[in-house]
Amino acid sequence: MYDESYALFKKYQIVIHKEDEDECSESMFEGFLVESPLQAKDDVLPHGFGSFHQHYILDGKIIAVGVLDILPKCVSSVYLYYDPDYSFLSLGTYSALRELALTRELHRICPDISYYYMGFYIDSWQKVEVN
Predict the structure, then answer these.
(1) Which secondary-structure segment (H or E) carries 41?
(2) Of 81, 92, 88, 99, nearest to 28 (Cα)?
(3) Vertex 68: Cα angle to 102 and 61 (nearest 5)
(4) Per-residue model confidence as pLDDT tens digits over 54-80
(5) CA distance 63 to 44
(6) What are residue 79's DSSP bridge partners?
(7) 103 within 8 A of 116, measured Cβ to Cβ
């Protein structure tokens, strides 16, 4: 799944953000979305706290990936990338709804998880500008 996920990330960055292919290196992908200081371990949740990639699969193909941090008090949406060929499905909206549902599900298991953060805004970073 890693190779398919990285290929999707690269396609998304090139098509949606108009990056050059060399700006979408595997090491950039690793540093940006794979490596995390968070450790996925805990007794409370089935998969623990940490950083996770939520794959959205249609007909056996990854069409979107939501990168999430699951923390003791919240779920934080870090980044979403998707196959531009499926943009008509409004995958950003769909993933936000699924992440809200996940937050509610996790809250039932761990009542301290009470918040869902849809990422953060960086004024000087045009890539995160909402269209």
Answers:
(1) none
(2) 81
(3) 85
(4) 999 999 999 999 999 898 899 999 999
(5) 30
(6) 67
(7) yes
As a whole number of angstroms, the distance between CA 22 and CA 63 comes to: 22
Residue 77 CA, chain-centre distance (Å), reads 6
- pTM of this prediction? 0.84
Please name which of 18, 75, 19 lies closest in space to residue 52, comparing C-alpha atoms.
Answer: 75
Q: Are 116 and 100 within 8 A, CB to CB?
A: yes
Per-residue pLDDT tens digits for 67-121: 998 988 999 999 999 999 999 999 999 999 999 999 999 999 999 999 999 976 5
Q: Could you tell me whether strands 115-117 and 74-82 are parallel, antiparallel, or unpaired per DSSP bridges?
A: parallel
Phi, psi of 130 (to 5 degrees): -80, 130
Q: Residues near 72 by Cβ (< 8 Å), separated by ≥ 6?
A: 49, 110, 112, 113
CA distance 99 to 2: 21
